[in-house]
Design brief:
The structure is a homodimer of 341-residue chains.
Chain A lengths: L4 H15 L3 H13 L2 H10 L7 E7 L5 H14 L4 E6 L11 H9 L6 E6 L7 H15 L4 E7 L3 H8 L3 E6 L5 H11 L4 E4 L7 H14 L24 E4 L8 H17 L6 H23 L2 H15 L5 H16 L1
Parallel strand pairs in A: 1-4, 1-5, 2-3, 2-4, 5-6, 6-7
Helix pairs in contact in A: 1-2, 1-3, 2-3, 2-6, 4-10, 6-7, 6-11, 12-13
Chain lengths: 341, 341
């Protein structure tokens, strides 16, 4: 997709306005980023090198753990410290049309005239791996616009959603006391991506016991090396030097929330001191973004005028089981080789 | 990844054994498919053209709606009719290591010596879009092995998971009476992918009211055309000629389950009568599989000896914000062009 000089100019002024504090421009730019339009491309080429300083915090947990309420309480705490904060809510309410939870809208209202709070709901569709690429690109734009703390809220029951939260600099896994069996099972998987574990709804009976159980689980869970499957790109493991801390919060009253913010800042400070190559979470974010663009370009090539019919025939043959997927892949790679030549 | 003649022979005998009724061979083949090994490639090239006859049923819903119990009740009902049935449980319990819910294991025990029931839990990792590709490939293997009905159970709160269920021939969305607000919001998004809606836990107060509310929502929801975002490949819409039926079941007692199976069979029969190009769900499955293999091959090329260092440098530069993702994509495409030439 080539950027016309017109699209380029529009993107430049939109990007400059967004970075200059124009919140409507920022919202429009994020929409462009979500749709991967030419405007987004030109703007990202301009803004991306100025970003990289923000602290990305992933917040994930099962439905009912109180993620949205805790995010609202964190916003209030961050604002008390006079710091700007942005939220990307990866919206589980509609996988198709991307609606927003009622609570989201209420929260947005509360900060409608605070220029240092920016809340964005997003639902990614269509693209494989789109969620990671889109939320990462959106975070880069918010970073360039001066938001030094970016919270990414996802539901902790979907693979893509957990991956998005886990690719943050700091990953917070939320739990609540006395959740059902199904949710307990989910918990075990989630704990593996946690830098910080938070037992929310701390005023409920059993909160202390849940926290103790979680601490015991974290002691028992020896770090296990992840082997890449054959043919799969090995993902560098994020070093987890310390066992995750377990905190208790009551988001509705704000209890424990200052301690949570302090723990987030500490985690960030420790990571910032480390030398060496970029941390695995940053590499994973980079790879998700770049690969999504590469995949877009390749798909564009396959569905380009000259090759569209051949591509459609190959896919229809697989759908009808006249052709196996590996032979089909060979044919599409041959088409790509042609378009590259 | 080239298939050695040795791997090819092993794959052939494994595939033949799996299709011939050897359940251990089937389990091993599914593991190979999950890991996309060379054995899986050779086996898929052999088996895929013999598959395509099975009815794929996606079953999805929020945690707590009783999916697993309903799947167990459906298995019992299908077996009463003397038909074989396979289940692919896309396991939400661990996005990372892929554990299985306790209930799953109990269910597996119950059918341990019934050769016409095959239950498989799978958790896909690492690959973008891996869940759709893996579950589809696994379904093709089970199809080739003679399972005419394949249930794919996913949690209805993750984007990838919902996409997997929605790519089935028939998509069942499960709800339960009296779920909380967060879950209610999730429901709206889920309903859009439903061919059949099931209110489970029908013995609870409010089941009839929930069913009525759902019917009202489905009447209100006018079908809306989906526009592809700029730069995005348009996905053909699955035609939904009829408003989804709303059924009530009580999975624990089996009430309503025979009616559900009959509704599934009816939906299948109507689809089978339709002429024309392959339905969108089948095309989406084909595309997911083929694209995953294409992406694997391209990634292999990028991380091949000669290009690995260049690729790593590009990604590290993006991670450190020295290079924007679009310029990085240009560089990786140039590398791919080189490897293709």
């Amino acid at each position: 997709m080539s950027v016309t000089s017109d699209g380029g100019e529009r993107a430049t002024s939109l990007a400059d306005a967004a970075v200059g504090g124009d919140r409507l421009a920022l919202a429009r730019l994020l929409t462009a980023v979500e749709n991967r339009t030419p405007v987004a491309e030109a703007a990202m080429r301009r803004l991306y090198p100025t970003a990289g300083g923000a602290h990305l915090v992933g917040i994930t947990g099962p439905p009912g753990s109180g993620k949205s309420t805790l995010v609202a309480a964190l916003i209030a705490e961050v604002r008390r410290a006079g710091r700007p904060v942005a939220v990307i809510a990866v919206d589980p309410s509609s996988p198709i049309t991307g609606g927003a939870l009622l609570g989201d809208r209420v929260r947005m209202q509360a900060y409608a005239d605070d220029p240092d709070v920016f809340i964005r709901s997003m639902a990614s569709r269509g693209h494989a791996g789109g969620l990671a690429a889109t939320s990462t690109a959106a975070a880069a734009v918010l970073d360039a616009a001066g938001f030094g703390l970016i919270l990414i809220e996802t539901v902790g029951t979907g693979q893509s959603e957990v991956e998005v939260a886990a690719a943050a600099d700091t990953t917070v896994v939320l739990e609540a006391p006395e959740m059902g069996d199904e949710v307990q099972a989910i918990k075990a998987g989630l704990l593996e991506v946690a830098d910080l574990v938070v037992v929310n709804k701390g005023d409920r009976p059993g909160a202390q016991r849940t926290a103790s159980q979680l601490r015991a689980m974290l002691v028992a869970a020896a770090p296990r090396p992840q082997l890449a499957a054959a043919g799969e790109t090995a993902r560098p493991e994020r070093p987890r030097p310390k066992r995750p801390e377990v905190l208790i919060t009551t988001a509705t009253t704000g209890d424990g929330v200052p301690e949570l913010l302090a723990a987030l800042d500490r985690h960030r400070a420790v990571a910032a001191e480390a030398d060496g190559p970029p941390p695995a979470a940053r590499l994973a974010r980079a790879e998700a973004q770049v690969w999504a663009i590469v995949a877009d370009r390749l798909r564009d090539g396959l569905h380009d005028g000259a090759h569209e019919a051949a591509t459609e025939t190959v896919l229809a043959d697989v759908a009808d089981h006249r052709l196996d997927p590996y032979s089909a892949a060979d044919r599409l790679l041959a088409i790509l080789r042609e378009t590259a030549g």
